[in-house]
Specification:
The chain has 317 residues and is mostly helical. It has twelve helices and no strands. The chain is elongated. The chain starts with 11 loop residues before the first helix and ends in a 57-residue tail after the last helix.
């Protein structure tokens, strides 16, 4: 029995990379990618609903660890619900965020598979490196936001005094914590922008280091504006961490400049006290054709007669 082997054709990724796909095929590819990403988010949302209550309890821990949050009658942490369906809608919101995080590998891959064929090889390599650094930096920012929330609530609730009863509304509190986590996580991505400027050649490491005074001032001003709590802990912690990440990014930029040999192209092979030569090629200047002053204006220029050709008798064939 003979089996006919069918030749495998190029994949969708290969066809998109070599530009052989039509516009309709690109639209269909986008539709398929969005459908797969949406299906993954829907499945992650189902797991997120199941984990919504534990996640809400985890986000409530900074407040529940304070003595002001304990109800004297029950001895448990107590929040206030203003609407009938507030907790239900809050669980849906938390489930959606958790679902996005759970399904992130799938929908990020679908996004990358759609845009990667239009990138060069070195651009794909940079994308891999920056993506691998973005996740740990965001996680570090989220951990710092959790710490800042604990210290900030302790400061703010102690300012109110013992004669004032404090009952936080649950949806506003969870929104406060999640916004702070998102803010700190996005702020921690700033070193990637610094590295991007250096890797593409827009700013050298020495120039980035010369901006350190301006950078620190901008970090403290940015932290004072975007930090939602008026206490000094959150602003100072965010500004110090951003400054440390900035100097770390500048250090990586110095390593990248040394690896690529930037700044040594013109002065390579010269000592520090040696004068660099001025290397340029001059074009030779030749005398132009003599102009007859007696010739009338507009008269055609005389055509030079060709020089006579010397021939020998044996050149004739």
């Amino acid at each position: 029995m003979a089996f006919a082997l069918r030749k495998r054709g190029p994949s969708t990724f290969e066809r998109a990379a070599d530009g052989s796909m039509t516009l309709i095929e690109h639209v269909r590819e986008l539709r398929n990618r969005l459908f797969r990403a949406s299906l993954a988010i829907l499945v992650g949302f189902g797991f997120g609903i199941w984990l919504a209550t534990p996640v809400r309890e985890l986000l409530s821990k900074p407040y529940c660890d304070l003595p002001q949050s304990i109800d004297l009658a029950t001895g448990k942490c107590k929040f206030v619900q203003l609407g009938v369906a507030d907790v239900f809608l809050l669980n849906l919101k938390i489930g959606l965020w958790v679902g996005l995080i759970i399904a992130a590998p799938i929908w990020l891959y679908q996004l990358w598979a759609f845009i990667a064929p239009g990138l060069h090889r070195h651009e794909r390599r940079y994308a891999y490196v920056f993506t691998a650094l973005a996740a740990p930096l965001f996680a570090a920012g989220a951990v710092l936001a959790f710490f800042v929330t604990t210290k900030g609530l302790e400061f703010l609730l102690n300012v109110s005094g013992d004669d004032i009863a404090t009952n936080l509304e649950v949806t506003r509190y969870i929104s406060f914590v999640t916004n702070l986590i998102l803010l700190f996580g996005v702020a921690f991505e700033f070193p990637l922008i610094v590295l991007m400027l250096n890797f593409v050649g827009l700013a050298s490491a020495k120039r980035l280091l010369s901006w350190w005074r301006v950078a620190i001032f901008v970090f403290f001003a940015f932290s004072a504006v975007v930090t939602p709590t008026p206490d000094p802990f959150g602003m100072t912690a965010l500004a110090i961490c951003l400054s440390a990440l900035y100097f770390g990014a500048v250090g990586v930029a110095f390593i990248n400049d040394r690896r690529r040999g930037r700044g040594k192209e013109v002065y390579a092979g010269l000592d520090d006290d040696e004068v660099s030569p001025l290397e340029f090629d001059t074009d030779p200047v030749v005398a132009g054709q003599r102009v007859d002053a007696t010739a009338p204006i507009g008269a055609p220029e005389p055509v030079a007669k060709p020089a006579p050709i010397d021939r020998r008798y044996d050149d004739m064939t």
